[in-house]
Amino acid sequence: MKAVVWNGPEKMAIEEVPEPRVEAGTLVVRPDAAGICGSEVEGYLGKMGNRTPPLVMGHEFAGTVVEVGEGVDEGLVGRVVAVNPLASDETCRLCRAGLTNLCPARTLIGIHHPGGFAEKVRVPARNAYPLPEGLADAARVGALAEPLANGVHVVRLGTAGEEPVEHAVVIGAGTIGLMCLQAAVLSGIPNVYAVEPHAARREAAIGLGAHAAYASSEEAWEALRGISDGLGADLVLDAVGATATRRGAIGLLRPGGRAVMVGLHDDETSLGFHGVVRGQIRVQGSYAYTAEDYEEALGWLVEGQAGIGALPPVLPLEEGPSAFKDLVRGPSAQIKVFLSGASGA
Ligand SMILES: [Zn+2]
To answer: 131 in helix, strand or coil?
Structure first.
């Protein structure tokens, strides 16, 4: 079968690879839509230590079940399923505490196992969620569950505890930023603002529920001061992870506020810590999601409560290498690029 194979920094090609063999408790899916994640663009450049070439990436996908293994419901063949790519051992101390996303033995399809940028992919049956039959654009909608699950997790961490969160700021309005934004709105935070330099992406943020969108943290601070008694935001979510956005996130917070960091753009960042100490600021990392986060995200998408606005077309796998090359050049108005090896998709 054909797959998009990453062979090292900026080396990607369509190659013929062995088909996955179905095993007990698994099923084989033909991805009908597989989204390219920002972390995969960084991975393509060789900046992500957790990806080793040669690798078939693709962890945001949904598709049609073509084969089921022993012990799996045969009625699933032909159904469109969304796939949670993350599996943990369910037995370690962290898993037993509900921290399955932090399991030391966790694996991700598209990082540790061949992913969705291929004609077929094998997935554990328990990670496949059948979508309602007749759901419009089911594969693309289902493929958004993974990035939205990240947003659900970020907001869950950001709102844990007793303190009310009235003003939240999301930095970055790419896919993950827009997902954090919608999770924040849907979780009931009354005022959610976006910071994003790209004008079309600011518009997307407004279209998806942001109460205002600003081109810079400085602009956001000017606006926030007037509506938060001069204090700043209760919660800031950094979906970029550049030194400037990490500093911006901390600078926008009120004393005692919380910054949740999910963007991975830079590894090392220097930050002024006197303000963190004197402001009693909480800096929280967020990684991936639990099955519960994924299920909440998928539910919102299926009900039409969340999305990315107009869905872009699904490109054939052959356009994968050039799509990655384009994405390296930086943000565009298009929020998500989908690939699929399904004929006629
Ligand atoms: Zn575990």
So the answer is: coil
pLDDT, tens only, 37-70: 999 999 999 988 889 999 999 999 999 999 999 9
Residue 92 to residue 137: CA distance in whole angstroms: 38
Whole-number Å distance between alpha carbons of 283 and 178: 21
For residue 98, report the distance from its CA to the centre of ligand 1, in Å: 9
CA distances (Å), origin 330, targets 186, 211, 253, 334: 29, 26, 28, 11
* Preceding omega of 331 cis (within 30 degrees of 0): no
CA dist., res. 23 & res. 185, Å (int): 41
Helical residues (DSSP H) of the chain, grouped into ranges: 38-44, 93-96, 138-143, 145-158, 175-186, 199-207, 217-227, 243-252, 274-278, 291-302, 320-328
User: How far is the C-alpha of 154 from the C-alpha of 5, rounded, in Å?
Assistant: 31
Structure tokens at 173: 């309005």
- For β-strands 11-16 and 26-35, DSSP reports them as unpaired
- DSSP β-bridge partners for residue 107: 87
What is the distance in A from the centroid of ligand 1 to the CA of 94? 6
User: Residue holding tokens 């917070």?
Assistant: 253
Ordered domains of the chain (ranges, CATH): 2-144+308-340 (3.90.180.10), 151-285 (3.40.50.720)
pTM (2 d.p.): 0.96
Q: How far is the CA of 184 from the centre of ligand 1 (A)?
A: 28
**Residue 102 CA to ligand 1 centre (angstroms):** 7
